[in-house]
Design brief:
CATH class of the largest domain: Alpha Beta
Bound molecules: S-adenosylmethionine
CATH architecture of the largest domain: 3-Layer(aba) Sandwich
Number of strands: 9
Number of domains: 2
Shape: elongated
Strand content: 15-25%
Largest sheet: 5 strands, parallel
Distance between the termini: 54 Å
Strand order of the largest sheet: 2-1-6-5-7
Radius of gyration: 23 Å
Structural class: alpha/beta
Length: 247
Amino acid sequence: MRFDILTLFPTMFDGPLGESIIKRAADDGLLDIRRYNIRDYATDRHKSVDDAPYGGGAGMVMKVDVLARAVGDVVGDAVVPVILMTPQGRVFTQQIAAELAQQPRIVLVCGHYEGIDERAMSLFSDQISIGDYVLTGGELAAMVVVDAVARLVPGVLAEASPQEESHSGGLLEYPQYTRPPAWQGQAIPPMLLSGHHAEIARWRRKQALARTREHRPDLLARAPLSAADRKLLAEIERDASTTETET
Ligand code: SAM
């Protein structure tokens, strides 16, 4: 999969793209991540990419003419998603990551300063926010999108990303344990040592439901639940009310 990232700060991506799984996948040719410096498309002597806002006010605004040249050069006639990173976009989710991972190529554009000239909006087919807060620039947001999408590209992870992973099937993932078997008085749940795969799967599903109920009831309310899940949830409710009565 190809990612084209337009940014004023291409070297910010060196760390996240130069380590671990993403680097290995790029070295193996599964990912082609290209960076373009928007400043290279400025034409004046000072290579200006921003200017003061009309109407006054704080900060600087990225110039539409420079952005249009940059996007035009990178995208050309290709029909690809051209996505602006912005706190005003639709909020990024695992589902959006999965949709984007179906694409052979996406283009991510990072704003900076006070944002970008509104007339540039026609350059984009989509706008994505990574959450309801404001960053200094779109670079960290683009890194989040690249990371979340790239790991869904077939072959990038050694094993296929499990459906049980948090947010993939609508729930949070069950708890995980590894050696040592006892740590500071905390043992491994005996079920995980039982060797009964079907029982372990049931235990994990119940744990996933219980922690989603506890940490993210909003997700649980929307999750596609089977009849077996509803039975497990009833058990969880019973367990919780027994604990409450005891305490
Ligand atoms: N003045 C803008 C507003 O209030 O909507 C915020 C501009 S922000 C300081 C500068 C740039 O950071 C934005 O153009 C965008 O590219 C990026 N950015 C900031 N917060 C973001 C978020 N939550 N998700 C994605 N990009 C974000």
